[in-house]
From TrEMBL:
It comes from Fulvimarina uroteuthidis. It is found in: Cytoplasm. This is tRNA threonylcarbamoyladenosine biosynthesis protein TsaE. Keywords: ATP-binding, Cytoplasm, Magnesium, Metal-binding, Nucleotide-binding, tRNA processing. Belongs to the TsaE family.
């Protein structure tokens, strides 16, 4: 156990403190993890196990008996988990008959009395040793980990310390479904208010891929929480519905915000609700009529400069299709000639945007990131939560992001009606609004967004082990088929037809 890293020694004053530690660990548990619990009888091993299992199942009343006699008990949940108690194990070789290795193929394991089987203890990547405290009542837990678990365990304990620093030391934390990024979210219940914790530590830059810069800088991705804080503040100051920052630790990448709820633009059956989508398009109209400053304050001492959504960023994003989707679908890399055709086709399309209308672009303005506020009126019915990558770019981009929602199948009729409603609203405000140029800009931005998303969804599946995003790819392709008929995109369509992404005509 010499390769273990001791992370913290925590005083546990009572059973509730032990249960909080268990639920905090549940938030970062992954399949393949082995949590080893060491300590004498009555020191809190089963209490921690029970809390961890209940947190994974999101059921505070789940019956979790001690597996003292059965030796193992399996549970479902966000991460399937098997609870082992090896105190009565007769022969350490019997561990295989209990299905230890099988359990780790799809889930995690919690093991009490792991020292009975040295191979299990050496396999554990999270180890907690319980001791009675000599200087006060209660117990003490020494928390250690190895490998990638060190960072995860350190982070969940750091969040608990952060909450303690804002007078929420005993807040109950629950997992909240995150997004496709490295950000992670939790909810906490504090003083009767349901709040959201954003866990977004600063990300290390990847390797340079062009002009000496990494991908994140080329496409202007937020590297910490400061852009989120700045854009949220600007949106709220302008009268839009965005999370208010209740507490923050900018250096550690931790925020606590109010909770805008869980209702999106989809109805109870998971289908697009036309009324809500029309309200979201009204939101975009108001957003694009607002005059935005490029430099937005983060706090009294700093500000965030909103970057430009320029042709280089658009091209780097679009190239994700060549880098990921094409090899995945064609079973080969794109040739040098194909890459040149791709770059030339898209360069011509982007050159058409030289005179496009520009405003604040939220970047991911679609159903998962738009929260319906049923008791509000006007644009306040639309709550937005994912805008840390906002840029100054073509207004048509967010219109396409909404009307061709990447997470659902938007019918051609609904798409057309939403775009028409946006154009009508803009022309009502400004009779000189050029619908012809907007149609062109919309086609370019819609096709660029669909192109990059196909690449992103494959990358998520292949590189990041998130295959569920593949299920959205058929309707992304259907969006491309609708959009590539615009004459500005004829060269792009020709190449995509050769690749088989859309049909030849």
């Amino acid at each position: 156990m010499t390769d273990l890293t001791t992370i913290a020694v925590i005083d546990l004053a009572d059973d509730l403190a032990t249960e909080r530690l268990g639920s905090d660990l549940a938030l970062i548990l992954k399949p393949g993890d082995v949590v080893a619990l060491i300590g004498d009888l009555g020191t809190g091993k089963t209490s921690l196990s029970r809390a961890l299992i209940r947190a994974l199942a999101d059921d505070p009343h789940l019956e979790v008996p001690s597996p003292t006699f059965t030796l193992v008990q399996a549970y479902g949940g966000r991460v399937p988990v098997s609870h082992f108690d090896l105190y009565r194990l007769g022969d350490e070789a019997d561990i295989e008959e209990l299905g230890f290795e099988d359990a780790l193929e799809t889930g995690a394991a919690i093991v009490e009395w792991p020292q009975k089987v040295p191979a299990v203890l050496s396999r554990a990547n999270i180890v907690i040793e319980f001791q009675t405290s000599e200087d006060h009542d209660g117990r003490r837990a020494a928390v250690a980990a190895r490998g990638h678990a060190v960072q995860r365990v350190t982070r969940t304990l750091e969040i608990r310390t952060f909450l303690a620093g804002i007078d929420r030391a005993q807040a109950a934390r629950r997992h909240l479904t995150g997004d496709a990024s490295s950000r992670r979210y939790e909810t906490i219940l504090s003083d009767g208010a349901d709040l959201v914790v954003m866990d977004s530590p600063r990300q290390a830059d990847g390797p340079p891929i062009r002009d000496g810069l990494p991908y994140s800088q080329l496409v202007h991705l937020a590297e910490d929480v400061r852009p989120f804080v700045a854009v949220s503040r600007a949106l709220r100051d302008a009268g839009f519905c965005a999370p208010s920052i209740i507490a923050q630790d900018l250096e550690r990448g931790l925020l606590v915000t109010n909770n805008l709820g869980a209702r999106t633009l989809l109805d109870d059956t998971g289908q697009p609700d036309p009324q809500r989508y029309r309200a979201a398009m009204e939101f975009l109209t108001a957003l694009h009529l607002t005059i935005w400053s490029r430099d937005l304050p983060v706090d009294d001492a700093s500000q965030h400069s909103v970057p430009d959504y320029d042709a280089r960023a658009m091209m780097i994003e679009a190239e994700l299709l060549v880098d990921w989707y094409v090899p995945d679908v064609l079973g080969r890399k794109a040739s040098a000639d194909e890459r040149d055709r791709f770059a030339e086709a898209w360069s011509m399309a982007f050159s058409e945007l030289a005179d496009t209308e520009r405003s604040l672009v939220l970047r991911d303005f679609h159903s998962p990131n738009i929260l319906w506020q049923p008791d509000a009126i006007g644009t306040s019915r639309i709550g937005v939560i994912d805008f840390q990558d906002a840029m100054i770019g073509p207004t048509a981009y967010d219109v396409a992001s909404l009307a061709q929602d990447a997470r659902v199948a938007m019918s051609p009729e609904l798409e057309a009606s939403l775009v028409a409603a946006y154009v009508a609203a803009r022309r009502k405000d400004n009779p000189d609004f050029n619908a012809f140029f907007f149609e062109r800009d919309y086609a370019v931005m819609a096709a660029q967004r669909a192109t990059k998303i196909l690449g992103i969804f494959v990358r998520l599946a292949v590189r990041d082990g998130k295959p569920n995003y593949r299920r959205h790819m058929p309707h992304i392709i259907s969006y491309l088929k609708r959009t590539l008929d615009h004459p500005t995109l004829s060269a792009v369509k020709s190449l995509y037809s050769d690749w088989g992404i859309v049909e030849k005509h």
